[in-house]
Amino acid sequence: MRHGKKFNHLGRTASHRKAMLSNMASSLILHKRISTTLAKAKELRKYVEPLISRAKEDTTHNRRIVFSYLQSKDSIKTLFGEVVEKVATRPGGYTRIIKTGNRLGDNAEMCIIELVDFNELMLKDAKPAKKTTRRSRRGSGSAATETVAKTGESATEDEKKDDNAAE
């Protein structure tokens, strides 16, 4: 039975697990994206997100605490510098896990874990497209008179342009 077992031990001793998560967290902070197994990624998320939250307040105490977890000066500089600039307004959820399929050798579930604000492709998709106003076909009411007042053209000419652009 698994009474009181709150986290995945990943089949490793405590010291090995601590060293592995520390190295993975440093790699994630330096490279912004790493590929690993799903189980390790889920544990890494629990390990690294509190460190990023702590890094939002740049004090000597917080730097020392984060250094005790990461043991890498380069990753500390990157975390307290460029990573915190991007995540300063975000209230949490700094990482994203994307499943990539199964590994050939042992069929383990593989994934990519990345820092959310550093994926340019996802950021482009998240930005809303330029919103256009929808006009009715009848041209009655305030929408038609506003377009006439602004542009000096009739509403039917605007509708023809919209129809041609849609085709």
Automatic annotation (TrEMBL):
Gene3D superfamilies: Ribosomal protein L17. SUPFAM superfamilies: Prokaryotic ribosomal protein L17. It comes from the Bacteria. Residues 157-167 have a biased composition (Basic and acidic residues). Keywords: Ribonucleoprotein, Ribosomal protein. One of its GO terms (cellular component) is ribosome. Residues 129-138 have a biased composition (Basic residues). Residues 127-167 are annotated as: Disordered. NCBIfam families: L17. Part of the 50S ribosomal subunit. Contacts protein L32. HAMAP family: Ribosomal_bL17. Belongs to the bacterial ribosomal protein bL17 family. PANTHER family: LARGE RIBOSOMAL SUBUNIT PROTEIN BL17M, RIBOSOMAL PROTEIN L17. This is Large ribosomal subunit protein bL17. It comes from Belliella aquatica.
